[in-house]
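Per reviewer request, we include the raw input and output of the structure prediction for the construct analysed in the revised manuscript.
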Amino acid sequence: MISERESSKSSYNKREEDFLNLRDFNNYLEEIEEIVFNLANNLEVEETKAKIEVYRKDNFKIIQKNRVLQSKSEAYLKSQLAAEAREAEERRIELRNEEISEELEKSERKNKLLDQIATSDRPADELIMLHKEELVRPSLLKPASGGSGFSISMMNTKTSAPKAVAYKYEPIIEDNYGPSLANLNCYSEEIEVTEIALAGGFKKAYAGERPLEEAFDGLLYF
């Protein structure tokens, strides 16, 4: 038999969206706590029951609506859990079948090796070595997980390192959009430069090159 406390819980099933504001919803939650406390401690039982009965009559439609929503939500949750359980069981069976298939394959290879040792004239250690090579070869031919595509054919491919190219100096050629600086050498003969200036690195050609460079450099900014 359902107790009055459990019955009141199923009736007081309003959601936050059923209220106009958060304060009304919080007051509603406090009212529920007070009802549960009174029924659990036998305090004002008759008054509390009467209050519950009034609430049920005033909120009958909302109570029924939320019960339907709760039922649908629980049904959906149960279906999801059942689907996950089925998937887990199918995966467990699949893994188990793979393990059984692998064990059968190992047993067949072992029996084949024993038959070869018993019937062949070749040394047993040679047959065992060939047997091990057969086990390794399929794993090399099979693409690795992740799509690397590695195969045994790649082991025989010789990759040559790129040949080193000797460094070759190539002077930078800049266009000054003007006369060639080589034509200025004719002015250098008329310029007198002291030995101190020459020792410091000054050249006669600077006298003609620098004014022209300063004149044409500014043109590129317009």
